[in-house]
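At this stage, I wrote out one protein's amino acid sequence and its backbone structure tokens, and that material follows here:
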Amino acid sequence: MDSMTKGSDQGSSSDAKFSSSSAPLDPQKESAPYIDPIIEKRLVRKLDLRMLLWSFIAYFANLLDRNNLQNAFTMGMKDDLDLNNVAYNWATTMFFIGYVVLQIPGNIIITKFSPRLLLPSVVITWGAVVSFMALINDYKALWGLRLCLGLAEAAFYPGMIFLLGSWYTSEELGKRTMFFATGNQVSGAFGGLIAGGIADSMHGAGGLPAWKWLFIIEGLIGVVVGIMGYFLLPNFPHNTKWLTEEECKLAVSRVQDQGKQVISKAYSWRTVANVMATPYSWLMIINFACIYIGNNMSLNFAIILREMGYEVAFSNYMNTPAYIFGAILAVSIGWSSDKRGDRAFHIAGTQLWVGIWFLVLAVVNHGANPAALVFIGTYAITANISMTALCLAWSNEIYKKDHNTRAVAIAFINAVGNLAPNFVNVRAWVVSDAPEFWLGKITSMGMSFASVLLTILIWYLVRIEFMLPKATEEKKKDQEEIEGSNNA
């Protein structure tokens, strides 16, 4: 998608050439080999066509399988399983229990195990779990499989964010992380259409109700995508077999030039201290949660329209253009963030924009907004949907000096950041408050403005290098491992 000539010595002669000798690459060097832009362009193209494109498709499948419960509920599962509101809410809760529990262990494992094998296996596992949901006959079995689904999906998102950060430079990472995360919006845009198509054409086929076909088909999508991953995903820059030796050395050099480690060492108390005893993970968790709460306007858009008197079909279909618009905004923000070399003010600026719109929506008629304002405000707020992904891209850079710390920090921030907002949402965004949702709008406004302040605080602490996470060990072993991998 883009290629840039990089090197730590900006005064290097333009006719210098990238060295392909077998000498080990030392991360501590003050100067680095010249990076050939032609080879770099070829490398980045390979990564985009294989890793990035697969990650987007896999995340699309991830959100399809995670969020299809509400579609199944409206397609007859409610009556077939005698699923009341309490049982349904527990099915949702069971997923998040599993999802949060295994995120940190999953990212610890990925530093020690082949991502090319681990991540596709995760996708196949959750696809199989969803397909098996077609076999359930009561809500207790649904609870058990939803718990298993959360456990299966836990390692994917933080693991993929971590892997992207292990390959792309800071000039490339923002827009690619945001592109990966738009799998969320695309799933939201088309998930309902897929469910509607299955409901119209598959009900009664093979003696099965439509909701069981929904689980079978969307689960099998995950299985197929997972199998593709075995052939497309890389491992890490120093040990990916489908790169040439020249590309492998360049891949290592690119990230090392920016001070990033991509070799796993032994876990130690220093790893824990890097995450728990520095302020960045805690501030990022609070910021993540504040941003996440702002997504509720988009999540409840169909409910708002339905309660305003629009037809159910129209209300559901209106999600599609809103999510597509949000995906375009996300990639645009990521592109600008990379181009300007900035994370903080893109996050803060977006949160200021979102907070202002929530203020307008809450103030006008005390939340009982006219239809035009509902549409305009919801579209404006879709800029918020992927901002948590940009926070994690920034975390990839804050924790760049230690491979293991970066993995644990990303999973920790994502796990707790996803969990905490649920305790606020159950009080602020109550379905019975639709369509006004005044309390939810005011709460989201406050959280968005708080995110502006938190983001600026994190930026300032990074700028003055306050307690920045450090490497846990000497880097001599990194040098030896890279040399050994290149000679293998």
User: Anything to note?
Assistant: The two ends are 30 Å apart (CA to CA). The first helix runs from residue 37 to 80.
